[in-house]
Specification:
With 332 residues, this protein is an alpha+beta fold. It has two domains: 85 residues, Peptidoglycan hydrolase domains (Immunoglobulin-like, Sandwich); 170 residues, Glucose Permease (Domain IIA) (Distorted Sandwich), CATH 2.70.70.10. It starts with a helix and ends in a 9-residue tail after the last helix. Helices cover 15% and strands 36% of the residues. The longest helix has 28 residues.
Length: 332
């Protein structure tokens, strides 16, 4: 038997095996394939389900997780921060406020949650059923100059939108609001106009992203909860207004004021008078436009009054994540 020939054959086979293996690895990196096609993937929504109508606010609970350093959810590209549950007497855990935008697509969408614990990340998945709300539709026929902005006014409006965008670009990392939310105007007339669409001269306009509250001129307007005045404005359409940052991506807005009684950077408490009802900007009569944005979602401000945070206080910090959300820290 020719021993050297056998060795050379074995060497060629070994080299061929290595070449094949390297080729497979290279192709797999360029064109990923599932090596084990029968391995089941974790289904979406495995950890539970929530449901709510467009404009509603959902409270999502993550129980336990005392050692978590960060808990953050993602819903329709929007980031949802979680914070220690402030409700007394319940099981320990963290909650996130999930705002359903007034134009979110009806149907089932995933809420994915990442729980950071040191170097490890644990994931949760919930299904959220978005239910279509029946918003009012109003058809109007008006002169063109009453509907469309002229070139100068349009330029001003765009500059004002950019001003607000820059002022609200960074969210406060602290939860500033307390448990109870309040209606900003006492004995006002709620119009139920949130989400309504006006079709002017056959063209649909943007839906009304706040609630209008009718009240006499000069009626006091209160902050719905604790926060920081992020910016005060005097704008073309919304008139004199106040934007309050309540922390963690939660903002409230108060428009068409006759007087503004706070300034940028002021710390305000729930119930503190921040302005007076007026008819500034484009308004047909004295009223307050009360709006809320929650992590980018335009929600019905009256949904805040239905949240299950009544007469509670935040627990004493016991974990790294809890220490990031000390309530009322900026207030004397």
């Amino acid at each position: 038997m020719n021993i050297p020939a056998i060795k050379r054959a074995r060497l060629r086979i070994l080299q061929l095996d290595r070449t094949v293996i390297m080729t497979v690895v290279l192709l797999a990196s360029v064109f990923p394939v599932e090596l084990f096609p029968n391995t089941p993937t974790q289904p979406k929504g495995i950890d539970g389900q929530y449901s709510g109508k467009q404009g509603q606010v959902l409270v999502v609970k993550v129980p336990g997780e005392e050692q978590a350093t960060e808990i953050r959810g993602t819903f329709l590209t929007r980031s949802i921060p979680f914070f220690p549950d402030p409700r007394p007497g319940g099981s320990p855990g963290y909650v996130g406020l999930l705002g359903i935008d007034l134009q979110d697509e009806p149907g089932t969408h995933e809420l994915s949650i990442d729980i950071q614990q040191g170097e490890q990340v644990r994931k949760l998945s919930f299904n959220v059923l978005v239910v279509k709300e029946k918003f009012h539709v109003e058809h109007l026929t008006l002169p063109k100059d009453k509907v469309d902005l002229d070139e100068k006014s349009l330029a001003r409006w765009k500059a004002e939108q950019e001003q607000v965008k820059q002022a609200l670009a960074e969210n406060s990392r602290l939860r500033l609001w307390r448990s109870d939310f309040i209606e900003p105007v006492n004995n006002g007339k709620r119009t139920g106009i949130f989400g309504s669409v006006r079709i002017m001269n056959g063209q649909a306009r943007s839906p009304h992203n706040g609630e209008d509250i009718g009240a006499p001129m000069g009626t006091e307007v209160a902050a719905t909860n604790d926060g920081i005045v992020r910016i005060t404005v005097d704008h073309l359409l919304s008139g004199r207004g106040v934007y309050v940052d309540h922390g963690l991506g939660f903002y409230s807005m108060y428009f068409h004021l006759s007087d503004v009684l706070v300034k940028d950077g002021d710390l305000v408490r729930a119930g503190q008078i921040i302005g007076k009802v007026g008819a500034t900007g484009r308004a047909t009569g004295p009223h307050l436009h009360w709006g809320v944005k929650l992590n980018g979602a335009r929600v019905n401000p009256y949904a805040l009054l239905d949240l299950p945070f009544k007469n509670g206080s935040a627990p004493r910090p016991q974990s790294p994540l809890q220490k990031q959300f000390l309530p009322h820290q900026p207030f004397p």
